[in-house]
Write a structure and sequence with these properties.
By secondary structure, this protein is of the alpha+beta class. The chain has one domain. It is built from one helix and two strands; from the N terminus they run αββ. It has one helix spanning 2-12; strands spanning 16-32, 47-60. A two-stranded antiparallel sheet has the order 1-2. The radius of gyration is 18 Å and the shape is elongated.
Length: 61
């Protein structure tokens, strides 16, 4: 998904998308899939994982 967004940005700016220059991982959470009141989180098998990353790509002419 990040690469697709970067490719669209490069296309819109009449540039070529290059290699990944840097990637970092930021915010990371694991939560129960269904956040039902009074449900025991540890017993929930299905989870929602949210990971926020920053990816920097090189652009060329």
């Amino acid at each position: 998904m990040a690469r697709e967004a970067a490719q669209q940005f490069a296309k819109d700016s009449h540039s070529q998308l290059g290699a990944i220059k840097r990637a970092t991982q930021g915010y990371f959470t694991i939560l129960p899939l269904n956040q039902t009141p009074q449900a025991e989180e540890a017993r929930e098998i299905n989870k929602t994982v949210r990971i926020v990353t920053t990816v920097e790509y090189a652009l060329g002419d």
